[in-house]
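Journal club side-thread
Mid-discussion, someone asked how the predicted structure for our own chain would compare to the paper's figures. Pasting it here so we can look after the session.
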Amino acid sequence: MEVDGHCLCGDVTWRAKIDPDRVGICHCTDCQINSATAFRIAVMVPADDFELLSGELKVYVKTAESGNRRALSFCPRCGTSIHGGDVGESPFYSLRLGNCRQRHELRPRTQIWCRSALPWVDDVGDVRKFETQGRPPR
């Protein structure tokens, strides 16, 4: 499946060929912190199947719990995460799908690092819902 996306400010645009059956959720604490939310939705994509159409990416290198060094790429202007991969020439990217235009079509098939999952994530269906921002809780 061909997908495309852009960062929040629009400076970075990209296109990729992905296997939608490989879309997953990561509950690791690094993804929670980096995405500033409960988990991240991503798909592994061969580097040759990812194309940066506009903009330049800034890279932050972090050491994962495994000890592996990971290169996290993002828009230098707005900070939107684009992908993660090995330091140097990465053969695969973990493409972040929060900025993918087709994200509503990409249902996650797996979840990893579930030992770090926040205890309430399975219960969000029970949380009060509003079509837009709604009123602040009382």
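Post-session note: The chain has one helix and ten strands.
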